[in-house]
Amino acid sequence: MFRTIIKTKLRAIRRVLSYDWATYFILGPVMMGVAFLLGRKIFKDFAFGIGRIQPVSLSEETVVRLAFAFLALKIFFNFLPLARRLYPTERLLSVEDLLPIAFNIRYKVFYFEQLFRDLPFFAIGTILLIFFGKTDLLVWPFMIWFFFPGVEIGFTLTWIHFWSPNRKRLGGVLLILAFLLAFLPVVQLSWWADFFTILFVPLGYYKGFKVWRYTDMGRVAQFFVGHENRKNRAKTAALLRRVCQLVPKKVRPLLQRDLILTARNFVPHLWRNLVLVLLVIFSALSWRQIDAVVYCALATFIIASTVSPLFQMQRPFRMMDAALPLAAEHVWRAKLSYARLLALPIPFVFWGIEVALRPLPWQESLNLLFTLLLVGIAVSSLVGGSICEGDQRPVLQYIVAAFLCILATLFIALFNPVLFLLLFPVLSSLKNSAVIRIENEGSA
Fold first, then answer.
1. Which of 15, 213, 321, 351 has its CA 20 to 30 A from that of 116?
2. Per-residue confidence at 365, pLDDT binned at 50, 70, 90?
3. Mean pLDDT across the stretch 131-149?
4. Residue 245: what are its φ and ψ, rounded to 5°?
5. Residue 443: pLDDT above 60?
6. Exposure string for 49-61, b = 16+ CB within 10 A, e = fewer
7. Measured at the alpha carbon of residue 426, what is the angle toward residues 425 and 431, in degrees to the nearest 5?
8. Rounded to an integer, what distance in angstroms lies between the CA atom of residue 440 and that of residue 131?
9. Residue 207 CB: number of other CB atoms within 10 A?
């Protein structure tokens, strides 16, 4: 039974890859390779040392503490999305749910899917260890990747069984973990990690997935309903309306809807992107060999890319938009404004970090803020403006947007901020392409 289900899942993955194989294996590597080679050449010829990566030495103790901190952040931000997948309270029972499949087979399939979802984190951890020259620790990313889904599943099921899935309590636990990660010896941290692995993996398998997952279904569904209602309180709605005042009147309803969906956790990718942005901020605090503009562009791209899965997940419901008197341009502008609003705080965060760690004269400080704002607006605009590229395929849209964002960052930060004006003809071209795609989709 397990082999049959896995074969079915792999067949579905192969079907997706058969449609997008050129994107993953040809177009993506070619475009990103050209962008990085061009960027390296421009930095070498014109940057005069700004933004170059210089050798960094990290102790093994620091690497271990950073790894534990990253895992704690992943548990915190992935708690509610994982709970929604463990307790399918928002969808009807599928054929797979109705089949008489034993709990252990269901657990193995879910574990396999979680391994597949966590594969990018394993790849990023491996690349970072190779980059920092810690090749003797390469076995640990594989071990963490293989065992951590069991710990995460067991912890989520155990927490929900004894407490409600409350982010405030989780935030308190996260603060306690941050304190322990900063002051406990690394040896004791390893012991505690082994203890939690031995505790939560069997507990999640024998009790959580077998018993608690079914007995707690009604209580979890009731919590999520209350959670949705709390998100619709008058203060939150009023805040979103005030935020939407920044955009044109015809775009406000669409933008407010997207923000409400984001607050309701319609896009779980937002939490993953927030974790990555926090890691970039931490890198900016501890790794001063890279210019703040590069960090700002990277963080802006990560958080603004949330618009791509949002647009894809709304695809089954866009026929309702086609029935309304909405211009296709307004749909595109709503997504453009959404990406800009998500990325709006990023330039100010990195400007504050740069000013706090390296005090500058007020003229240089304002010049840096101006450059960061231009880069942030350009990157978020290109990510949101290219939303319809690739026939609503997020991977292709990521590649196209990343290529454009790298060029925009290089032109604005290295050559002249006046080149920011080139953004407007690019956005105009992207708008025309998006309007045609959206109108064709509505007519189909």
1. 213
2. confident
3. 79
4. -65, -15
5. no
6. eebeeeeeeeeee
7. 95
8. 46
9. 15
